[in-house]
Amino acid sequence: MADRYEPPHIHAQKDDNEAKLWLDPLEFAYVEGFRRHECSEILSITQEHLGEFLRVWFERFGGLSDE
């Protein structure tokens, strides 16, 4: 899986819009099609659930140095 070799992140999609957010620090890697207010909402929701996203990431992929 390619994702396991990248820092923790999530993807957001709606219709033809897509975004990728790094979780630490919390910031957009890229945004395609979302409006500014939608990006603010995505950041807010991600911040609200950040601990859960990171917990699941490391349960799924482990540390970056794991084989």
Could you explain the architecture of this structure?
The chain is built from two helices and three strands. The protein has helices spanning 36-48, 50-61, and strands at 9-14, 17-23, 26-32. A three-stranded antiparallel beta sheet has the order 1-2-3.
Main beta-sheet strand count, sense and barrel state = 3 strands, antiparallel
CA-CA gap between termini: 12 Å
Integer tally of domains:
1
Instruction: Give the number of DSSP strands.
Output: 3
What percent of the residues sit in helical stretches (DSSP H or I)?
25-40%
Strand order of the largest sheet: 1-2-3
Question: Rough shape?
Answer: globular
| Uncertain runs | none
Indicate the proportion of strand residues. Answer: 25-35%
Structural class estimated from helices and strands: alpha+beta
Rg calculated over all Cα atoms: 12 Å
Give the ordered list of helices and strands. EEEHH
| Continuous helix count | 2
Mean pLDDT: 91
Layout of helices and strands:
Elements: E1 9-14, E2 17-23, E3 26-32, H1 36-48, H2 50-61
Antiparallel strand pairs: 1-2, 2-3
In short:
With 67 residues, this protein is of the alpha+beta class. The protein has helices at residues 36-48, 50-61, and strands at 9-14, 17-23, 26-32.
